[in-house]
Specification:
By secondary structure, the chain is mainly beta. It is built from 1 helix and 9 strands. A 9-stranded antiparallel beta sheet has the order 4-7-6-5-1-2-3-8-9, with no helix packed on it. A hairpin with a 2-residue loop joins strand 8 and strand 9. The longest helix has 9 residues. The two termini are about 30 Å apart.
Length: about 140
């Protein structure tokens, strides 16, 4: 396996906690997976927020979660569905692997951090770790 962060099959992040599908907003193309309260850092839930989601195939929950870059086999399976098209700014194709489920997300950015509510909107992440496409600038 390569040391390059976008190398196929690379584990970007993992956790033994249970994550559930919390929200998916078509208007903003955002997906949020979150742990139940009391399972994160200092009893605050952890969240994974995927932004500019192009396509996804995820279940409702993942017991233990590993976030990986898709390998050639997964990319070929997704490409066979006609989902992935050549683009000037390539998207991230990520595999979500749990003990009891498997899924994938095609997006431009994913952030992982403590998930807090702002007003009545879930999903604000404190000091997130961010993974983004190679073409995007940090910020």
């Amino acid at each position: 396996m390569s040391d390059e962060p976008h190398a196929p099959g690379r584990v970007l992040w993992s956790s033994p906690l249970r994550f559930s599908l919390w929200t998916y907003g078509i208007g903003h193309s955002q997906l949020l997976l979150r742990t139940p309260s009391g399972q994160g850092i200092d009893d605050e839930p952890l969240g994974l927020r995927f932004e500019a989601v192009e396509r996804l195939n995820v279940g409702r929950s993942f017991r233990g979660l590993s976030l990986e870059t898709a390998d050639e086999t997964v990319l070929a399976e997704i490409a066979a569905t006609g989902v992935l098209k050549p683009r000037p700014n390539p998207l991230l194709t990520l595999v979500l692997r749990g003990e009891d489920s498997l899924g994938w997300v095609v997006c431009s950015k994913v952030a992982v951090g403590v998930s807090r509510f702002t007003g009545n909107q879930p999903g604000f992440l404190l000091d997130p770790v961010v993974f983004r496409t190679r073409a995007m600038r940090s910020g």
